[in-house]
Design goal:
- By secondary structure, this protein is α/β, with parallel strands linked by helices.
- The chain has a single domain (5-81, 91-205), classed as Vaccinia Virus protein VP39 (Rossmann fold).
- It has helices at 5-9, 11-19, 26-36, 54-63, 97-106, 127-148, 190-198; strands spanning 44-48, 72-77, 87-91, 112-117, 149-159, 177-181, 210-215.
- It has a seven-stranded mixed beta sheet, with helices on both faces.
- Helix 5 packs across helix 6 (127-148).
Length: 216
């Protein structure tokens, strides 16, 4: 399917192409870092649902694991992802205990300072179903995070706005506090969320969302 002129005019889409980012979503993480200073003192990071790799690119450029042997970044996704220098890539299911174990093994038994997740499931166009599946993906990301994130670490995840509740709103026992944020590079169009899935090969990220920065 061809891309609309509106997509082509999107400033973040253009900037992503110009600056070599794999997707416009890179700017969301960059803006969150500006707001929350996410990367200060961080040496071990997990990028869940990482494909096509724009958030891993941000980690690569900010933390420079290809130059600093003390920095380790593990990118996890069910799909294969084009290699990134310095990024450890895993094809794995985030709902599986074996995936959590493999992540910790890459950190030589230690746990991550930061876990990030910008994942979104395939959309059906049926709002209630899509909302439920997105919530389950977020909860799966949070579940594996409890196994791989050190106490006091930070969890950043995409959570679509929902009519009834947010997945994080029901996890007060696990998440003592969270700070919702909507970077300016996030789209507010639900219709564009469906376009994102159709154009996944080019990965124009457009979804009504908030991102939650969580200290566990």
């Amino acid at each position: 399917m061809g891309r609309s002129s509106k997509d082509r005019r999107d400033v973040y889409y253009r900037l992503a192409k110009e600056q070599g980012w794999r997707a416009r979503s890179a700017f969301k993480l960059l803006q969150l870092d500006t707001q929350f200073d996410l990367f200060s003192g961080v040496k071990k990071v997990v990028d869940l649902c990482a494909a096509p790799g724009s958030w891993s690119q941000v980690l690569q450029r900010k933390l420079k694991p290809q130059e600093d042997e003390d920095v380790k970044v593990v990118a996890v996704d069910l799909q294969a992802m084009a290699p990134l220098d310095g990024i450890i890539q895993m094809q794995g299911d985030i709902t599986k205990e074996s995936t959590a174990t493999a992540i910790v093994d890459h950190f030589e038994g230690e746990k991550a300072d930061l876990v990030i997740c910008d994942g979104a499931p395939d959309v059906t166009g049926l709002h209630d179903i899509d909302e439920y599946v997105q919530a389950q993906l977020l909860l799966a990301a949070l579940n594996i995070t409890t196994h791989v994130l050190k106490p006091g670490g930070t969890f950043v995840a995409k959570a679509c706005e929902m009519k009834r509740t947010t997945a994080l709103g029901e996890t007060d026992v696990v998440v003592p506090a969270h700070a919702p944020s909507q970077p300016s590079s996030s789209s507010s169009s639900a219709q564009q969320q469906q376009q994102q899935q159709q154009d996944e090969a080019d990965d124009v990220e457009a979804v009504q969302e908030e991102l939650n920065v969580v200290s566990l």
